[in-house]
Amino acid sequence: xxxxxxxxxxxxxxxxxxxxxxxxxxxxxxxxxxxxxxxxxxxxxxxxxxxxxxxxxxxxxxxxxxxxxxxxxxxxxxxxxxxxxxxxxxxxxxxxxxxxxxxxxxxxxxxxxxxxxxxxxxxxxxxxxxxxxxxxxxxxxxxxxxxxxxxxxxxxxxxxxxxxxxxxxxxxxxxxxxxxxxxxxxxxxxxxxxxxxxxxxxxxxxxxxxxxxxxxxxxxxxxxxxxxxxxxxxxxxxxxxxxxxxxxxxxxxxxxxxxxxxxxxxxxxxxxxxxxxxxxxxxxxxxxxxxxxxxxxxxxxxxxxxxxxxxxxxxxxxxxxxxxxxxxxxxxxxxxxxxxxxxxxxxxxxxxxxxxxxxxxxxxxxxxxxxxxxxxxxxxxxxxxxxxxxxxxxxxxxxxxxxxxxxxxxxxxxxxxxxxxxxxxxx
Length: 427
Ligand code: ZN
Fold this sequence. Notes:
single chain, alpha/beta, 6-stranded mixed beta sheet, 6-stranded parallel beta sheet, 14 helices, 35% helix, globular, binds zinc ion
């Protein structure tokens, strides 16, 4: 009996050792390669189809369009050509472990400037057989949908334009709602159309469609005049399913812009509202993911709150927010050293969240307002909507330019690329 038990125990030990050995072996020699995540925008042009295939010594993860139009076929062709070149470069007789396999991955992002212009960004990641690390390539295509023709920058801008942007210019670029983005390797830089106003050849980049009148065009192509007074209205805690749309309408009617400091969790709930804000020309800033007091959090958690929100907005719009408003305006040295973006506080508090009464909100703002001010409102409260309507129309009547925070700070000559706390743009 004793002998049998001993053998039993030995068998168990043997079994466990084999399992552990296999696990170690597996981990060391058969570890699968981790394929980096690429962020994607969701302003989709058409239906995408994802295809994966695993071969002996390479893996392919592609995304293509259902090729119903010539443009979709052209985008697909770029990917197919690149993939063919990639597969041709692999020696089919080479034996590879899973981690040594060559890998090809691509995603497609599309951006609509207006009903007529669509840009495609094809991001391609390639890992060579038995090599480590991915090489990233970005291929861009820009089309005029009405003519199904490629758009070149020369067809959109006058001579001298390339000279003006020579530090940023590259052959790879996409056209977004408000700016051109150039890609050079891992580096990307954007230029707002408003900065290139003098070089605009057509109305394509600023008009919503070809049929816009001169007057309408003039309205939306308005740039900030630094010599005139201006304020930046800000809305926190949204986006909100209905209030934010109403505010966008009021802003549009008044040819005004604002800045929306959004919560990541609400960005997830109302992606369409986020896109509408972006396309309206107003600015999106980060207010954190879940509205915690950042001064009570550890560095890693602070970064998560900001980064996740930024990624979410970027995924929806292709725009990376440039400003942070900490919840409650709470800042300390840890928060400041963790986030490398300017912190935007305010100098005019409407207390709209407290009074919920336009009769109190409007005078609180209007009695104190001056050139360069940053006004705090919250688009999650429905009582803020009529109050905002009064404030906006009164400010316009008093000849204020209603601009975004970034536009105002830039017009007032501040460097907004540094980590600094701004209460206003008063000089
Ligand atoms: Zn807040």
